[in-house]
C-alpha cells in the first residue's frame, strides 16, 4: 500500500500527484517491489533487507541516492504473549524525494516537531528520533509489566509467571541488539555527514539523537540486568518455597507416624500388655497423644 506525502511549511502532510516528495510503502507486495526497482532503480537485495526483521542497521551509498536501514520496535499485540519484537525500516534518500519501506502500519511522522522539516534528510532524522522515542515508550511498558509479574510471582509458584519473565528478558535482548545496531548506524551517519550533505542544523540534531540513543541503550541494559537478576532471585525463591513446603509435609508425615506406630503395636494379634485391662483403649489413646505432642515439641525445639 502506497501513501504519499509532501513537505509543506516545515511539516509533513498527505499529498497527491506531482506535489508528493515522500513515498511510504506499507508492507509492499511483489508488484510494488518490482515497481520500485524499475521506477527508482533501487537494489532488489536492499529492498528485501528493508523488510527483514533480522537485518542489522546500515547505510549504503549509490550513484543517485543513499539507502538507510534502521531498527524500531514492532507494534505490540495481545497475540505476542508478552514478547516485544523489533522490525526494520528502509529509507532511500534522493536529492529531492524519499522512499520509505515499512513492514506494518506504524506512525512515522506523528509527535512534536523536533526539527524543522525542509528536505528528505530532515525526514530521515525525524524518523530516527521517532524510533528512539518509540523504544523508550516500550521500555516503560516493559518495566510496568515486569513489576506486575513480580507481584504475581511473590504470591504464586505457577510456572506461567516465570515463563512470562523469561519472555520479557528475551524481549529486552532483542531491544538491546536493535538499539546497539542503531547506535552504530548513527556513528556512520556522523562520519559520512559531508558525503550525505547534512547541514549544520542537521549535525546538531544528529548529535542530540546520538545522545538520546545512548541513553536509551543504557536504560535497556539496566532493565535487562534487573530482569536477569530478578529471574535468578525469583527462581531461588520458588525453589526455597518448594523446599519449605516439602519439609513441612515430611514433618507432618513423621508426626502422624509416631502415634500410628503406638496404636499399631497394641493392635498386633499376639499377647500384649493391657489386653485384659478395661481401660486399655483410653490408655493407648493417651500414649498416642503424648507421642504426638512430644514429636511436635521435638521439631519445634529443633526449629524445623
Give me a quick take on this structure.
With 304 residues, the chain is an alpha+beta fold. Helices cover 59% and strands 13% of the residues.
Order of helices and strands: EEEHHEEEEHHHHH
Gyration radius, rounded: 34 Å
What does the largest sheet look like? 7 strands, mixed
Instruction: Supply the number of structural domains.
Output: 2
Low-confidence stretches: none
CATH superfamily of the largest domain, by name, is CorA soluble domain-like
Multimeric organization: single chain
CATH class of the largest domain: Alpha Beta
The number of distinct β-strands equals 7
If you consult CATH, what is the topology of the largest domain? Beta Polymerase, domain 2
Percent strand equals 5-15%
Summed up, the helix count is 7
Shape: rod-shaped
Global mean pLDDT: 82
CATH architecture of the largest domain: 2-Layer Sandwich
Order of adjacent strands in the largest pleated sheet: 2-1-3-7-6-5-4
Distance between the termini: 69 Å
Question: Which bin fits the share of residues in helices?
Answer: 55-70%
What structural class should be given to the helix and strand makeup?
Answer: alpha+beta
Amino acid at each position: 500500500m502506497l501513501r504519499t506525502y509532501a513537505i509543506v511549511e516545515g511539516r509533513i502532510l498527505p499529498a497527491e500527484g506531482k506535489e508528493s516528495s515522500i513515498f511510504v510503502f506499507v508492507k509492499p507486495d511483489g508488484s510494488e517491489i518490482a515497481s520500485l526497482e524499475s521506477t527508482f532503480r533501487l537494489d532488489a537485495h536492499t529492498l528485501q533487507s528493508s523488510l527483514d526483521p533480522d537485518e542489522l542497521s546500515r547505510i549504503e551509498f549509490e550513484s543517485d541516492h543513499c539507502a538507510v536501514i534502521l531498527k524500531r520496535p514492532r507494534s505490540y499485540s495481545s497475540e505476542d504473549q508478552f514478547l516485544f519484537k523489533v522490525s526494520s525500516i528502509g529509507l532511500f534518500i534522493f536529492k529531492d524525494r524519499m522512499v520509505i519501506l515499512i513492514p506494518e502500519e506504524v506512525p512515522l511522522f506523528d509527535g512534536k516537531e523536533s526539527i524543522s522539516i525542509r528536505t528528505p534528510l530532515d525526514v530521515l532524522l525525524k524518523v530516527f528520533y521517532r524510533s528512539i522515542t518509540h523504544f523508550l515508550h516500550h521500555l516503560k511498558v516493559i518495566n510496568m509489566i515486569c513489576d506486575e509479574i513480580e507481584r504475581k510471582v511473590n504470591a504464586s509458584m505457577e510456572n506461567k509467571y516465570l515463563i512470562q519473565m523469561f519472555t520479557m528478558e528475551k524481549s529486552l535482548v532483542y531491544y538491546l541488539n536493535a538499539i546497539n545496531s542503531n547506535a552504530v548506524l548513527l556513528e556512520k551517519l556522523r562520519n559520512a555527514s559531508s558525503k550525505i550533505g547534512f547541514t549544520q542544523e542537521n549535525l546538531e540534531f544528529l548529535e542530540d539523537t546520538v545522545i538520546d540513543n545512548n541513553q536509551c541503550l543504557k536504560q535497556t541494559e539496566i532493565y535487562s540486568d534487573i530482569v536477569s537478576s530478578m529471574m535468578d532471585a525469583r527462581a531461588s525463591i520458588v525453589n526455597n518455597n518448594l523446599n519449605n513446603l516439602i519439609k513441612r509435609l515430611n514433618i507432618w508425615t513423621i508426626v502422624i507416624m509416631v502415634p500410628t506406630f503406638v496404636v499399631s503395636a497394641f493392635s498386633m494379634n499376639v499377647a500384649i500388655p493391657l489386653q485384659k485391662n478395661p481401660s486399655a483403649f483410653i490408655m493407648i489413646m493417651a500414649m498416642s497423644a503424648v507421642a504426638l505432642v512430644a514429636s511436635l515439641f521435638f521439631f519445634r525445639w529443633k526449629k524445623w
